[in-house]
Input
Amino acid sequence: MITSLYQSLCNMETNIADRVALRWYDEKTGSVAVVHYAKYAQDLRRFVAFLRAEYGDVRGKRVAILARNSYQYVICMYGMVIAGAVAVPLNLGKDWDGISYELGLTEPVCILHDGEFAEREPELEKAYGSILQPMDAFSAYEPAQDVTEVEDLSALAFIMFTSGTTGRSKGVMLSQKNLFSAMPAFLDPFDDVKRYTGWNTDEFSSLSALPMFHISAMTSLVSWSITGHSINLCNNLKYFYRDLGAMHSEVMAVVPVLLKSIYSDVMKGRRDRLNGLCVLTCGAAMFDPKMLSDMMEKGFFVAQMYGLTETCGDGAWNSSQEAKYLTSVGHVDLSCEYKLDDGELCMRGDPIMLGYYKDPEGTAEVIDADGWFHTGDIARVEEDGYMYLTGRKKNVIILDSGENVSPEELEGIVGKCEAVKECIVKEMGQKIGVVVYCDEDKQPAVRDFITEANRTLPLYKRMSAVEFRTEPLPRNAMGKLLR
Amino acid sequence: MERAEIISQILAILEDVAEVSPEDVSESSVLMDDLDLSSMEILTIVADLEETFGLRIPEKELRNFVTMGDLVDYLAANAG
Output
């Protein structure tokens, strides 16, 4: 049983050294690059040597990553935790306002970046130029041979930002103990696939297309490396089909927008584009049950996962291929205790985060005195143990891309338009919608304002439906706008 | 390249990727609203445009692609 990244490093060097760890499409050579676990481990040691040489004792210090997915990303993220530092993987899609807040909060000693964000947001260079480092800085160093286990596996190891419900993002603090306690939730389902399908899963590869600052990518990189399986990196969703075509992959974690794309290929008879893909793990948002059942009928093994950043991805797992369970997120797993508190799902156990970074009040709002984490999701558990999500207590929009968006943040942007008297941002079907109260003759101007505001937002955050009201928006007895 | 030719190439890709009928598209169509495209569909369309027009569209340009006209303008200025 591997319970730390250091143990995983040793496992890579002894038991699985000859197996392929990672593949990716190399833009420069126009071919697939391959790295085995032996080299992966050596590069992790190089990264430790780099951090020590440049920053001395890094234990407990934060190191940020602001880059697109890449092999170097994997080395940087896990190498720094093995060295005792705290990994802060940041969302490349955010704008300068969001990133500068997160950098200000975490005060990293170093920011590893690939230049993409800096090209779009020159403020990064101005504010943090002295601590920027290229992602491959480690490659010039000799592997450190004296790497040992960190002193305390319960200490802070990762800060993963998640959308807050009051505008600013929150830094979820996770330890290695959190991460490895959640591992059974990612390792055990493999047995379900094998048992149900009879497929030999020993040689399976997984296409990793979700960004590495996302908990599901972060945890699956660890779980697949424990078992010695290989991961094929899709570093840019734009090239999803090129990468899938170039790297045969059986398994893939999908969010609804990705499933929709794959579904349409299967239904249009273009399955050859998918190059052997046959296991889909669906997570991060709600899926269309019809789509799931159609995929099962077409021979896919479809599993659903429920978890949060705050629970290190742990939660529930549904690998039943029966139609009656399609709308369930599945059975809760044994890594945590579960209870419903006035309908709200609560979890307690080792995978639960240490808290929100520098935010004891925010932490106390979600983790009570008895250690129960309140998920904000309203759930119902049937007698047969299957759990169903029925609503949400927290004010957050969960999109088909799996991204969580705070309505208040977007309302702040729309509210900057002078003609807008009141506005509310909410889910409208599969879209982010805005309801605006303004004078009737100002409606075209408001619509134009929102179209222009969308140019400043990443694709997934665009407000793509606008409704107008000529009356003030409804409020509750406390005077708060009704959502 | 002629603007009309660029438009016809984009229309063909839109139809292939997202089953959008060419007659439903004008230059003022908002991609994620009027044409109901998902973020994934926009990315796939951009990858197909890169292949068709033999160019590489930098990531930071993606934010500017809000309407059909934005795509046409970019390609008119950058495609050889």
The longest strand of chain A covers residues 373-381. The interface with chain B takes residues 116, 119-120, 236-242, 257-258, 260-261, 400-401, 430-431, 451, 454-460, 462, 464-466 of chain A (CB under 8 Å). The mean pLDDT of chain A is 92. The domain at 406-469 of chain A is CATH 3.30.300.30 (GMP Synthetase; Chain A, domain 3).
